[in-house]
Amino acid sequence: MIGERRAADVPDGSRPRERDAGAVSSTRTRLYRNGNLERENFPVRDISDYVGDPECTVWLDVCDPASADFDMIAEEFGLHSLAVEDARHEHQRPKLDTYRTHLFLSAYAVTVEPDDGAVTTGEVSAFVTSNALITVRRGEACPVEPMVERWDGAPELAVHGVGFLVHGLLDCLVDGHFSAVQDLDDRIEELEDLLFEDSPGEIQAVQRRSFELRKSLVRLRRVVLPMREVVNGLLRRDLHVVGEPMQPYFQDVYDHVLRATEWTESLRDLVTTVMETNLTVQGNRMNLIMKKVTSWAAIIAVPTAVTGYYGQNVPYPGFNAHSGFWISTALVVVLSVALYVTFRRRDWI
Protein backbone atom coordinates (compact mmCIF):
# COMPACT_ATOMS: atom_id res chain seq x y z
CA MET A 1 0.00 0.00 0.00
CA ILE A 2 1.30 3.45 -0.89
CA GLY A 3 2.69 5.32 2.07
CA GLU A 4 2.45 2.30 4.39
CA ARG A 5 5.14 2.03 7.06
CA ARG A 6 5.53 -0.80 9.52
CA ALA A 7 8.17 -0.97 12.23
CA ALA A 8 8.66 -4.70 11.60
CA ASP A 9 9.79 -3.98 8.01
CA VAL A 10 12.48 -1.41 8.69
CA PRO A 11 16.10 -2.64 8.52
CA ASP A 12 16.96 -2.04 12.17
CA GLY A 13 13.51 -2.64 13.64
CA SER A 14 13.21 0.83 15.16
CA ARG A 15 10.24 3.13 14.87
CA PRO A 16 10.19 5.70 12.07
CA ARG A 17 10.95 9.19 13.26
CA GLU A 18 11.16 12.60 11.64
CA ARG A 19 14.37 14.54 11.28
CA ASP A 20 15.04 17.51 13.49
CA ALA A 21 13.63 20.60 11.84
CA GLY A 22 16.71 22.56 12.86
CA ALA A 23 19.19 20.22 11.20
CA VAL A 24 21.69 21.81 8.81
CA SER A 25 21.38 20.45 5.29
CA SER A 26 23.75 20.49 2.32
CA THR A 27 22.83 20.27 -1.35
CA ARG A 28 24.49 19.25 -4.57
CA THR A 29 23.19 19.78 -8.08
CA ARG A 30 23.89 18.76 -11.66
CA LEU A 31 22.37 19.73 -14.99
CA TYR A 32 22.53 17.65 -18.16
CA ARG A 33 21.31 19.11 -21.45
CA ASN A 34 20.89 16.69 -24.35
CA GLY A 35 23.26 14.24 -22.65
CA ASN A 36 26.00 16.76 -21.88
CA LEU A 37 26.97 17.91 -18.40
CA GLU A 38 26.29 21.64 -18.56
CA ARG A 39 26.32 22.86 -14.94
CA GLU A 40 27.29 21.46 -11.57
CA ASN A 41 26.76 22.66 -8.00
CA PHE A 42 24.60 25.56 -9.13
CA PRO A 43 22.19 27.23 -6.67
CA VAL A 44 19.03 25.31 -5.90
CA ARG A 45 16.90 28.33 -6.74
CA ASP A 46 17.98 27.97 -10.41
CA ILE A 47 16.28 24.56 -10.71
CA SER A 48 13.01 26.27 -11.64
CA ASP A 49 14.62 27.38 -14.88
CA TYR A 50 15.27 23.79 -15.99
CA VAL A 51 12.61 21.44 -14.62
CA GLY A 52 10.16 22.45 -17.34
CA ASP A 53 12.64 21.98 -20.18
CA PRO A 54 12.34 18.49 -21.75
CA GLU A 55 15.92 18.74 -23.03
CA CYS A 56 17.29 19.04 -19.48
CA THR A 57 17.88 16.42 -16.82
CA VAL A 58 18.42 17.64 -13.26
CA TRP A 59 19.94 15.94 -10.25
CA LEU A 60 19.41 17.41 -6.79
CA ASP A 61 20.95 15.83 -3.71
CA VAL A 62 19.92 16.93 -0.21
CA CYS A 63 21.95 15.65 2.74
CA ASP A 64 20.49 15.87 6.25
CA PRO A 65 17.35 17.71 5.09
CA ALA A 66 15.36 20.01 7.33
CA SER A 67 11.61 20.55 7.14
CA ALA A 68 12.08 23.58 4.86
CA ASP A 69 14.02 21.43 2.37
CA PHE A 70 11.12 19.00 2.04
CA ASP A 71 8.70 21.87 1.53
CA MET A 72 10.98 23.28 -1.17
CA ILE A 73 11.37 20.09 -3.20
CA ALA A 74 7.68 19.23 -2.84
CA GLU A 75 6.68 22.61 -4.28
CA GLU A 76 9.41 22.75 -6.91
CA PHE A 77 8.80 19.30 -8.37
CA GLY A 78 5.11 18.81 -7.55
CA LEU A 79 5.65 15.76 -5.36
CA HIS A 80 2.85 13.82 -3.70
CA SER A 81 2.40 14.51 0.01
CA LEU A 82 2.57 10.80 0.90
CA ALA A 83 5.90 10.42 -0.88
CA VAL A 84 7.30 13.45 0.90
CA GLU A 85 6.04 12.09 4.22
CA ASP A 86 7.86 8.81 3.59
CA ALA A 87 11.06 10.73 2.87
CA ARG A 88 10.66 12.78 6.05
CA HIS A 89 10.69 9.68 8.25
CA GLU A 90 13.73 7.44 8.57
CA HIS A 91 13.92 3.63 8.52
CA GLN A 92 11.61 3.00 5.59
CA ARG A 93 11.47 -0.43 4.03
CA PRO A 94 13.25 -0.60 0.63
CA LYS A 95 10.42 -0.06 -1.85
CA LEU A 96 9.23 1.61 -5.04
CA ASP A 97 5.96 3.58 -4.90
CA THR A 98 4.27 4.80 -8.06
CA TYR A 99 2.47 8.15 -8.25
CA ARG A 100 0.90 9.98 -11.16
CA THR A 101 3.81 12.31 -11.94
CA HIS A 102 6.75 10.61 -10.26
CA LEU A 103 8.15 7.57 -8.45
CA PHE A 104 9.36 7.31 -4.88
CA LEU A 105 12.27 4.96 -4.21
CA SER A 106 13.68 3.98 -0.83
CA ALA A 107 16.91 1.98 -0.51
CA TYR A 108 19.99 1.56 1.66
CA ALA A 109 23.74 1.74 1.29
CA VAL A 110 25.54 -0.97 3.28
CA THR A 111 29.00 -1.12 4.85
CA VAL A 112 30.59 -3.75 7.08
CA GLU A 113 32.60 -2.64 10.11
CA PRO A 114 36.16 -3.98 9.79
CA ASP A 115 36.49 -4.84 13.50
CA ASP A 116 33.40 -6.84 14.44
CA GLY A 117 31.65 -7.36 11.08
CA ALA A 118 28.59 -5.34 12.10
CA VAL A 119 26.46 -4.12 9.20
CA THR A 120 25.93 -0.36 9.01
CA THR A 121 23.18 1.00 6.76
CA GLY A 122 22.65 4.45 5.30
CA GLU A 123 19.19 5.31 4.04
CA VAL A 124 18.62 7.12 0.76
CA SER A 125 15.24 8.24 -0.57
CA ALA A 126 14.82 9.21 -4.20
CA PHE A 127 12.10 10.97 -6.19
CA VAL A 128 12.13 10.14 -9.89
CA THR A 129 10.31 12.46 -12.29
CA SER A 130 10.35 12.57 -16.08
CA ASN A 131 13.53 14.66 -16.16
CA ALA A 132 14.80 14.88 -12.57
CA LEU A 133 16.28 12.73 -9.83
CA ILE A 134 16.10 14.05 -6.26
CA THR A 135 18.04 12.08 -3.64
CA VAL A 136 17.61 12.59 0.09
CA ARG A 137 20.31 11.21 2.40
CA ARG A 138 21.07 11.14 6.11
CA GLY A 139 24.66 11.60 7.20
CA GLU A 140 27.63 10.23 5.33
CA ALA A 141 26.65 6.56 5.58
CA CYS A 142 25.48 6.80 1.95
CA PRO A 143 28.14 8.84 0.09
CA VAL A 144 27.39 10.18 -3.38
CA GLU A 145 30.96 10.21 -4.68
CA PRO A 146 30.86 6.59 -5.95
CA MET A 147 27.58 7.35 -7.71
CA VAL A 148 29.01 10.48 -9.35
CA GLU A 149 32.05 8.48 -10.46
CA ARG A 150 29.76 6.01 -12.20
CA TRP A 151 28.01 8.82 -14.03
CA ASP A 152 31.32 10.37 -15.06
CA GLY A 153 32.64 6.97 -16.12
CA ALA A 154 29.85 6.47 -18.69
CA PRO A 155 29.10 9.93 -20.18
CA GLU A 156 27.81 8.36 -23.37
CA LEU A 157 24.76 7.07 -21.45
CA ALA A 158 23.79 10.52 -20.17
CA VAL A 159 21.70 11.07 -23.32
CA HIS A 160 19.15 8.63 -21.85
CA GLY A 161 18.16 11.18 -19.21
CA VAL A 162 16.82 10.26 -15.81
CA GLY A 163 17.15 6.52 -16.48
CA PHE A 164 20.91 7.05 -16.66
CA LEU A 165 20.92 8.77 -13.25
CA VAL A 166 18.74 6.12 -11.61
CA HIS A 167 20.97 3.37 -12.96
CA GLY A 168 24.05 5.00 -11.41
CA LEU A 169 22.28 5.24 -8.06
CA LEU A 170 21.09 1.62 -8.03
CA ASP A 171 24.33 0.23 -9.42
CA CYS A 172 26.27 1.94 -6.63
CA LEU A 173 23.93 0.67 -3.90
CA VAL A 174 23.77 -2.91 -5.19
CA ASP A 175 27.55 -3.10 -5.59
CA GLY A 176 27.78 -2.10 -1.93
CA HIS A 177 25.40 -4.92 -1.04
CA PHE A 178 27.53 -7.35 -3.01
CA SER A 179 30.72 -6.21 -1.30
CA ALA A 180 29.08 -6.61 2.11
CA VAL A 181 28.00 -10.16 1.32
CA GLN A 182 31.52 -10.99 0.12
CA ASP A 183 33.01 -9.58 3.32
CA LEU A 184 30.65 -11.61 5.53
CA ASP A 185 31.37 -14.73 3.47
CA ASP A 186 35.11 -14.31 4.13
CA ARG A 187 34.44 -13.90 7.84
CA ILE A 188 32.36 -17.09 7.94
CA GLU A 189 35.17 -19.01 6.22
CA GLU A 190 37.57 -17.80 8.93
CA LEU A 191 35.05 -18.92 11.52
CA GLU A 192 34.87 -22.41 10.03
CA ASP A 193 38.62 -22.80 10.55
CA LEU A 194 38.14 -22.31 14.31
CA LEU A 195 35.42 -24.93 14.69
CA PHE A 196 37.70 -27.82 15.56
CA GLU A 197 40.21 -25.93 17.70
CA ASP A 198 40.69 -27.38 21.18
CA SER A 199 41.42 -24.09 22.92
CA PRO A 200 38.58 -22.95 25.24
CA GLY A 201 39.13 -19.35 24.11
CA GLU A 202 38.59 -20.31 20.47
CA ILE A 203 35.38 -22.15 21.35
CA GLN A 204 33.99 -19.04 23.02
CA ALA A 205 35.12 -16.94 20.04
CA VAL A 206 33.20 -19.21 17.66
CA GLN A 207 30.04 -18.85 19.73
CA ARG A 208 30.30 -15.07 19.99
CA ARG A 209 31.26 -14.43 16.36
CA SER A 210 28.60 -16.82 15.07
CA PHE A 211 25.95 -14.86 16.90
CA GLU A 212 27.33 -11.51 15.66
CA LEU A 213 27.49 -12.70 12.05
CA ARG A 214 23.95 -14.03 12.23
CA LYS A 215 22.74 -10.63 13.42
CA SER A 216 24.63 -8.93 10.57
CA LEU A 217 23.15 -11.29 7.99
CA VAL A 218 19.62 -10.76 9.30
CA ARG A 219 20.04 -7.00 9.01
CA LEU A 220 21.61 -7.31 5.56
CA ARG A 221 18.76 -9.53 4.40
CA ARG A 222 16.21 -6.87 5.36
CA VAL A 223 18.01 -4.47 3.03
CA VAL A 224 18.88 -6.77 0.13
CA LEU A 225 15.76 -8.91 -0.23
CA PRO A 226 13.26 -6.12 -1.07
CA MET A 227 15.59 -4.72 -3.74
CA ARG A 228 14.34 -7.38 -6.13
CA GLU A 229 10.92 -5.73 -6.13
CA VAL A 230 12.47 -2.27 -6.50
CA VAL A 231 14.60 -3.05 -9.56
CA ASN A 232 11.95 -5.29 -11.09
CA GLY A 233 9.42 -2.47 -10.71
CA LEU A 234 11.67 -0.01 -12.50
CA LEU A 235 11.96 -2.42 -15.43
CA ARG A 236 8.23 -2.13 -16.10
CA ARG A 237 7.75 -0.52 -19.50
CA ASP A 238 4.59 1.34 -18.50
CA LEU A 239 6.60 3.51 -16.06
CA HIS A 240 8.69 4.94 -18.92
CA VAL A 241 11.73 5.34 -16.68
CA VAL A 242 14.00 2.82 -18.34
CA GLY A 243 14.25 3.26 -22.09
CA GLU A 244 15.10 0.45 -24.47
CA PRO A 245 18.85 1.30 -24.59
CA MET A 246 19.06 1.24 -20.77
CA GLN A 247 17.23 -2.08 -20.37
CA PRO A 248 20.42 -4.24 -20.47
CA TYR A 249 22.06 -2.08 -17.80
CA PHE A 250 19.12 -2.36 -15.43
CA GLN A 251 18.89 -6.07 -16.18
CA ASP A 252 22.52 -6.39 -15.12
CA VAL A 253 21.72 -4.61 -11.84
CA TYR A 254 18.77 -6.95 -11.33
CA ASP A 255 21.07 -9.94 -11.86
CA HIS A 256 23.42 -8.60 -9.18
CA VAL A 257 20.46 -8.13 -6.83
CA LEU A 258 19.40 -11.75 -7.32
CA ARG A 259 22.92 -13.01 -6.73
CA ALA A 260 23.31 -10.92 -3.57
CA THR A 261 19.94 -12.14 -2.30
CA GLU A 262 20.70 -15.81 -2.94
CA TRP A 263 24.17 -15.43 -1.46
CA THR A 264 22.75 -13.82 1.70
CA GLU A 265 20.23 -16.63 2.11
CA SER A 266 22.92 -19.29 1.70
CA LEU A 267 25.17 -17.54 4.23
CA ARG A 268 22.34 -17.47 6.75
CA ASP A 269 21.99 -21.22 6.39
CA LEU A 270 25.76 -21.62 6.62
CA VAL A 271 25.98 -19.62 9.87
CA THR A 272 23.18 -21.74 11.31
CA THR A 273 25.13 -24.85 10.32
CA VAL A 274 28.28 -23.47 11.95
CA MET A 275 26.39 -22.83 15.19
CA GLU A 276 24.85 -26.30 15.17
CA THR A 277 28.21 -27.89 14.33
CA ASN A 278 29.84 -25.99 17.18
CA LEU A 279 27.26 -27.39 19.60
CA THR A 280 27.81 -30.89 18.22
CA VAL A 281 31.59 -30.57 18.58
CA GLN A 282 31.20 -29.40 22.18
CA GLY A 283 28.88 -32.33 22.90
CA ASN A 284 31.41 -34.77 21.43
CA ARG A 285 34.21 -33.19 23.46
CA MET A 286 32.12 -33.51 26.62
CA ASN A 287 31.46 -37.19 25.91
CA LEU A 288 35.18 -37.77 25.37
CA ILE A 289 36.06 -36.00 28.62
CA MET A 290 33.48 -38.03 30.50
CA LYS A 291 34.92 -41.20 29.04
CA LYS A 292 38.45 -40.28 30.14
CA VAL A 293 37.42 -39.20 33.62
CA THR A 294 35.36 -42.38 34.04
CA SER A 295 38.33 -44.49 32.98
CA TRP A 296 40.59 -42.83 35.54
CA ALA A 297 37.93 -43.24 38.22
CA ALA A 298 37.66 -46.95 37.42
CA ILE A 299 41.42 -47.40 37.66
CA ILE A 300 41.56 -45.64 41.01
CA ALA A 301 38.47 -47.46 42.30
CA VAL A 302 39.98 -50.95 41.96
CA PRO A 303 42.82 -50.62 44.54
CA THR A 304 40.54 -48.49 46.74
CA ALA A 305 37.93 -51.26 46.74
CA VAL A 306 40.47 -53.98 47.50
CA THR A 307 42.18 -52.14 50.33
CA GLY A 308 38.88 -50.96 51.73
CA TYR A 309 37.31 -54.44 51.64
CA TYR A 310 40.18 -56.05 53.57
CA GLY A 311 40.62 -53.04 55.85
CA GLN A 312 44.35 -52.95 55.25
CA ASN A 313 46.20 -50.76 57.71
CA VAL A 314 49.97 -51.22 57.35
CA PRO A 315 52.71 -49.16 58.91
CA TYR A 316 54.06 -46.33 56.78
CA PRO A 317 56.75 -43.70 57.33
CA GLY A 318 55.65 -41.61 60.26
CA PHE A 319 53.25 -44.26 61.59
CA ASN A 320 51.89 -43.30 65.05
CA ALA A 321 53.74 -39.97 64.82
CA HIS A 322 52.69 -36.36 64.25
CA SER A 323 55.00 -36.15 61.23
CA GLY A 324 53.08 -38.94 59.50
CA PHE A 325 49.85 -36.97 59.77
CA TRP A 326 51.36 -33.91 58.15
CA ILE A 327 53.08 -35.98 55.47
CA SER A 328 49.87 -37.76 54.51
CA THR A 329 47.92 -34.47 54.54
CA ALA A 330 50.51 -32.83 52.28
CA LEU A 331 50.42 -35.88 49.98
CA VAL A 332 46.62 -35.63 49.62
CA VAL A 333 46.79 -31.90 48.89
CA VAL A 334 49.63 -32.20 46.36
CA LEU A 335 48.01 -35.08 44.49
CA SER A 336 44.64 -33.29 44.43
CA VAL A 337 46.22 -30.10 43.08
CA ALA A 338 48.17 -32.09 40.49
CA LEU A 339 44.97 -33.78 39.29
CA TYR A 340 43.17 -30.43 39.17
CA VAL A 341 45.95 -28.82 37.10
CA THR A 342 46.06 -31.79 34.74
CA PHE A 343 42.30 -31.79 34.20
CA ARG A 344 42.28 -28.02 33.81
CA ARG A 345 44.95 -28.08 31.13
CA ARG A 346 43.01 -30.72 29.24
CA ASP A 347 39.85 -28.65 29.67
CA TRP A 348 38.12 -31.51 31.46
CA ILE A 349 36.87 -29.22 34.22
TrEMBL record:
GO terms for molecular function: cobalt ion binding; cobalt ion transmembrane transporter activity; magnesium ion binding; magnesium ion transmembrane transporter activity. The chain crosses the membrane at residues 293-311, 323-343. It is a multi-pass membrane protein. It is found in: Cell membrane. It comes from the Bacteria. Keywords: Cell membrane, Membrane, Transmembrane, Transmembrane helix, Transport. It holds the Pfam family CorA. Residues 1-29 are annotated as: Disordered. Belongs to the CorA metal ion transporter (MIT) (TC 1.A.35) family. This is Magnesium transporter. It comes from Actinacidiphila cocklensis. The lineage of its organism: Bacteria, Bacillati, Actinomycetota, Actinomycetes, Kitasatosporales.
